[in-house]
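ARCHIVE CARD
Drawer: 12
Card no.: 0347
Subject: one protein chain, sequence and derived structure
Cross-reference: see card 0346
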Amino acid sequence: MEIILMETIENLGGIGDKVNVRSGYARNYLIPGGKAKYATPENIEEFEKRRAELEAAEAATVARASERFEQINNLRVTIAANAGPEGKLFGSIGTIEIAEAMSDVGIEIEKKEVRLPEGPMRAVGEYEIAIHLHTDTDAKIWIVVIPEDDEE
């Protein structure tokens, strides 16, 4: 199915690109989300009229991502977790805990922006993770997991 993209989609294309995708992907995700339209002559004509508006919106999104990148790149965040004597955590630290720790520091990110290449953290230590801000903008941060002090 041929569609025209209304915004940049990672691993697919940029604004205004005509691409062929599977019909289910187009019907169930791209078109209902406003990310694409069917590549009919009417829709292509409408896109050309709105091209400047869509490109300005995309440029604003990229600028916001760049500002956030400068704010959080190479940031070090400490998370205290309940751990055993060998440093193994009781439970794990995932995207939700990282997003909450970042908001405690004063930086708002969504859990879907957190990329954990090795899965949830299950031991005390220092981990390098990526925060996916935009299609081509990833910031790296350091998460330091420390054991909680027993308050008895």
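Annotation on reverse: Helices lie at 23-30, 41-72, 95-105. The beta strands are 2-5, 18-20, 36-38, 76-81, 88-93, 114-115, 121-123, 125-134, 137-147.
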